[in-house]
Task: structure prediction
Amino acid sequence: MASFSARAFSGLKHVVSAALIASGAAVLVFGPRAGEEAPKNCVVVDYWEKWTGEEEAAMRQIVDDFNSTVGRDKHIFVRYLSTSSIEQKTLVAAAAGVPPDVAGLYNQDIPQFGAMNSLEPLEDMAAERGITADKYKKVFWDEGHYDGHLYGLVSTAYDLALYYNKTIFSEGASALRTRGLDPERAPGTIAELDEYAQALDRIDPSGRIILAGYIPAEPGWYINYTCIWFGGSWWNDREHKFTFTDPGVLRAYHWINGYSKRLGPEAVAEFRSGFGAIDTPTNPFLAPTVAMVQHGTFFARFIHHLKPSMDGQWAAAPFPSYDPKLRDVTYCNCDMLVIPRGSKHRQEAFEFIAFVNRQDEMEKLANLHCKISPLAKVSEGFLDHHNNPYIRVFDTLAASPNAHPTEPVPILPEVNDELNDFTDRLALQQVTPEKGLQDVQQRLQQKYDQFIEDQHQRKMMER
Amino acid sequence: MSSNTPNHASTLQAASGAVRRGNRKGRGGRLFAHTMLVAIGIAALLPFVWMLSTSLKTLQATTAYPPTFWPSPIQWHNYADVFRQEKANFLLWTRNTLVIEVLGVTGTTLSSAIVAYGFARLRFRGRNALFVLMLSTMMLPFPVTMVSLFSLFRWLGDHTGIAWLGTFKPLWVPAWFGSAFNIFLLRQFFMTIPTELSESARIDGCSEFGIFWRIILPLARPALAVVALFAFLAIWNDFLGPLVYLQRPEQFTLVLGLQNFQSKAGGTSWHLLMAASVLVILPAIMLFFVAQKTFIEGIATTGIKQ
Amino acid sequence: MARWHSETRAVLRGLAFLSPWLVGFFAFTLVPIALSLYYSFCDYSLLQPPLYKGLTNYHLLVHDNVFWKVLRNTAIYALMALPLGMLAALGVAMLLNVKIRGLAFYRTVIFLPSLVPTAASAMLWLWLFNAKLGLINVGLRAIGVTNPPGWLTDVRWSMPALVLMSFWGIGNTVIIYLAGLQDVPRELYEAASIDGASTVRKIWHVTLPSISPVIFFNLIMGIIGTLQVFATPYIMTGGGPARSTYFYTMYLYDNAFSYLKMGYASAMAWVQLLIVLVLTALAAWSSKKWVHYSGN
Result:
């Protein structure tokens, strides 16, 4: 008996090892290899992008458009590769000497990459094709520049506005009216926003938050730029100085902290632990567990996709400012196409980038991504048939003089890390806004000065 | 600890008494051990079961509250979806990993055997000093050389025309130069082979390398199997290495691809993530099933006597 | 004359066999270490040539509060995970050493988790620690805990979560201890029984001293390992929340490959090396007091 089961066991072992070896060999010999799909006698342009899912599918359409038209004529084949941590991978790949030909970065990467000499300047190639400043909304043309060079052109762009839930507004109409607020429109100032939020908050007797009118932590993606709605800024580009202790910045963080303090840090933490990611039905705006959020143009796509029953139940308006005289303030962000230094096919890469920036392709991509067009000229058809019913609000905001770009700071990853850490600790009431901002100011200014000093010394060495 | 050795007779007498007493205590002790081990065993297996269970659910079932243990209906197609998902390139990553495995495991085993032979079967001035030096390199944290290796590989690429970064070379070429841990393991084993075998071969006029190749190596097959096994798992498992040296998505290894897959999926498609994790773990488990004895003995010998 | 000749031949032969390691040691260890030391005195981003700056990096390091934070985090993790892990592994090994049926089965089950690649187990435990849907909190709520911790999203529980998770993979260490335990000569136990020793005293006076070399080995390996912890927190938390799971190697990696400050990262690497050396030396020196090598 025992020897039979032992033999069966050993037999099974042999079967399993044979299966392992056979499948391993099969994958080795017949498995897919890198770089298979490109057609012969074409210049292959490697394009690394961050997008997945629908956004990836949308960009792939543009890539296919290129490959079947300009690409076919000029023997260029663009190969789309999706990867996470795109900025880091591109930077290290450039450092390794094996970068992609085109990389889809975020606009905030441009200063760092530019300062580190890791991108090819594009101004000459752009000028050759008549791609000039007047073709774009000012913010987006500026965001592609650093230190006098053009390093990137937009692929998709968006800006921020206030999304609010009309149903919750009408449900809380009486509460709003008693405070003298109008349930048929969005708040017009920060003070009003706070009033609306408090009126709509639903908190149970034990302090647990059931619904929040507004909470800065959700989504919290742009929290580092809250100061622009308070008339402040933490970077002075003319003098190349950080200004974290600017009164507008302080006011902004006091305002953010106000929500933590009013609702209670424990309650907020518990409330936030139930938040779902943007692309799930448990997204707080969709659940709904918040009545108002600050989000980008693309958010409409998620609403429509994940909760079609909410269509028509929400609206978008400019996010209010602290000072009623400061109107149409927004933060503009975009994805940029760049050519990393060391790319072997600069001209062909730029062909593709220029193609994406054609008005028809740009609007096609923007519509699929549910974003705005960064171009100065926008077709009526684009605005009329856009997937975001409030596209005109976003479009007008992006062209406004108070449309704010990302600060062109070359040590932006470190700034973000510091600010994120500060925001976390602020939420935990571990530090006051004044002290925290002072620390951040001192540390970052020192890092920046060091950085500039090093760059300066390098330039001296090269002479 | 001082060793008082009692004389034999009293030992036997006391021993039999101890055995009698031990039987009663033994049963209680065994029951205790059984209970604890069952509890520990459940704790060890539960995550696996949960992983499997999640991998066979639908997306809605994963976010359902309260969660259910058994998925119904069972979504076997999740595994197929992992291969198809956004060109997740699972097969590509597997192939990449296997290429590095074949080159790396062969390199480690062969080179470690040659070096271990030098340390174990030959006598020469400076041998022990070099051995201690080699052992000390085991303490070197990878981050110390990580950055300069990166720049070294870049320099090699620029100045010799052979590219290192952007290829798999940084991950398998160093294996061909011996690995301290494996050299240590094989040296232990080689030292247990009687010297007479080498002596008689030398008298017969065999070259040293011949002795190594034709006599020692065949005898060392169990130890070589252990080394190959450990090397295979180390490469399969390696995360920081591929993270640093592989930038191109089409070159990712399986674990790197898994992490890439996770950060792209945004941590929401848990059913697919768990299915992908199961796929990554499966070969290691199957390997263990096939080579259990080798595994256990190999690990046991690593701890004995430094 | 002849002796010198044959001795030289022996050395040459020895070096020939050692040559793969010697070349590798030079190319992949010695040169990089030397380069790393040089880079630690420079500002270096790989995209531009290194810029010599003397001791600036080390000076900045001392004043970098993130450096101290990650050092503290790594120390706390090591102090929690290492002793507790070794204790648990030893305990489990002692349980397995009892003569019970199904030993091989239990051993297999306990060993299985250590086969799991770090990336996969990180993902699995990320799911298990999910504050709302994870098995752990579901279980806690089922036994009546009304407000289970947020684990990886809570600053107070993120580190304990990682320590807890490290227990899942002790199977490797258990096997090593088990082998050591099985090597303890039975006469020693019998002698202790005769002297009337209880189980606890037997463990203290017989077991522990006999396996002290194994404990020492695991301690050294444990020190080297826990000081380098990277993949698990990198994948699970990215260092948060509020840098509560930000470890030394992660900050080193970020400096090197996120900020491209390779000089600064090299300085960090050298500090790490020194710490490992000091701790290993301490352990080795203390081992004279408690490690007993039996003369076999």
Q: What stands out?
A: The longest helix of chain A spans residues 433-462. Chain A touches chain B at residues 13, 16-17, 19-20, 24, 27-28, 31-35, 46, 48, 52-53, 56, 81-85, 89-90, 92-93, 95-98, 100, 276-277, 279-280, 282 (CB under 8 Å).
